Amino acid sequence: MSLNTGLRFLSIFLLVLIFSMQAQAAPQLDPVILKNAVDNSIKAEGRKLGDYTLVDQDGVEFRLGEYFGKGKPLVLSYIYTTCPQVCPTITMELKKAVDGARTKYGDRFEVLTIAFDTAHDTPAAVNQYARRFTEHFRGFRFATGDEATIARLLDDTGFFRVRQDDGSFDHMDMVTVVKPDGAIYRQVYSLRTQPQGMVLKLEELIEGKAEGGRGLSMVDKFKFFCYRYDPYTGKYVLDYPVFVSIGIQALVIAVIAYAVWGRRVMKRLSKKDKK
Questions:
Q1: Reported pTM
Q2: Sequence-distant contacts of 25-34: CB under 8 A, at least 24 apart
Q3: Which residue, among 195, 206, 238, 207, has the nearest Cα to 96 in the 3D structure?
Q4: According to the model, what pLDDT value does residue 36 have?
Q5: Which class is domain 31-224?
Q6: What is the three-class DSSP state of 171?
Q7: DSSP three-state, residue 169
Q8: Which one-letter DSSP state was computed for residue 67?
Q9: Which residue from 50, 79, 216, 223 has the highest number of Cβ atoms inside 10 Å of its Cβ?
């Protein structure tokens, strides 16, 4: 069997493997959409947030602007109350990080969790969700609002979410750290695996430290979406099939490229050596 024939068979085999993996896996968002989601959230940094009217977990109406102008940074997180696994894990990790930061900074910062599924996230549902994590809402509040208000707020903060056919959401694992004047300071990603990132950004604002860099690579951008929940450990682990599929696709491209151009290059080099 010739080399070209072997390469063709290898390419076909790898393509079949890719399609079979994708057929067995849960639906994945387009990688371009995921990349754009992260880029869009970064573009929101520096944006001044509007004075939105919200309703907290006790049914009390308040304005987002009440948090600003008091010298305290604000941490915004995002959940929906019917989320079975992702949001509770994010909130749990957020609570741990907040508790750790409180030991050092006390009440020098505020935390507000936004429930964004307005069709289901009533104040009563938000209250029930919130009490799974805390009984004391001073400095750690949960809130919802009407559909238009929540949509504008999340668009302002650059938070990506998309509703699926079953009513669930694909969304980013992200918190937004806001300056005391109401301008977005930094987005912090992957709270499930790197909760200390939020604390570091609070530290920069509270202590006036020099701003740390982000330096997000393409791999970093994808990994905010490429973790899956492991019910046996209660933690999020890398979704290896996603990366294996990407790797195989890259290998197919390399094999095809060699089949098309590689042999030509080798023949030319061989002719030069004979001369």
A1: 0.71
A2: 25/241, 25/242, 25/245, 27/164, 28/242, 29/162, 29/170, 29/225, 31/222, 34/221, 34/222, 34/224, 34/225
A3: 195
A4: 84
A5: alpha beta
A6: strand
A7: strand
A8: G
A9: 79
